Amino acid sequence: MSEEVSLAAQQQPQGEEQNRNEQVPQSEPQESAANNNNQESNAPKHDQDVQMRMEEMEKEAAKLRELNSKLNTEVDNATSEEKKDIDSRSIYVGNVDYGATPLELQQHFSGCGVVNRVTIPLNKFSGSPKGFAYLEFGDIDAVNKAIATLDGSTFRDREIKVLSKRTNVPGLSSSNRGQRGFFRGRGFRGSFRGRGPRGRGFRGASRFTPY
């Protein structure tokens, strides 16, 4: 009697385990079907997001090209005296972080004086920042203060170099001056419109020479 009870007790779990094992495969196709449905439903949404981002980037690029064309025209039409005046109130900032924005640079130099214009030149082929910038102040005193106080300062975890900007003299090559060659890139990164003493906003320009 005891042996029969023991055998029955042993057989009962086996039967239950078989039932459980038989039920497991039935749930797997259901889970797979649910996952496939989720993936299919998420795919169109992902494609729409990518398309929207691409359209936004194309619109932004078109705006930058249009603004850049206007800026180049304004600089080309400026007289030599006007260019000298602008350059005398401008500085060259080297070792600028590639992710820096015109607004961040304006804020970094705001203690020196009114910033009329910030320019971050871009590589005309890749569109990447070149690692330097130009700032135009409202007066020459701000230039001197910027060089005296912020040359060697830390901006975005980088030690920047601040120098006065020199006027580009047509026909004078780098070998004549012993300095760096002309920069005539056509790109720029963003724009910052400050307000000068007479309320003139900065326009941003890209045809400058570092030295």
TrEMBL record:
Basic and acidic residues composition bias: residue spans: 43-59
Keyword RNA-binding: yes
Positions of region (Disordered): 1-59, 64-83
Skewed-composition ranges (Low complexity): 27-42
Name of the featured protein: Piso0_001296 protein
Pfam families: RRM_1 (PF00076)
Gene: Piso0_001296
Cleavable signal peptide: none
Organism of derivation: Pichia sorbitophila (strain ATCC MYA-4447 / BCRC 22081 / CBS 7064 / NBRC 10061 / NRRL Y-12695) (Hybrid yeast)
Ranges that cross the membrane: none
Entry GO terms, CC: cytoplasm
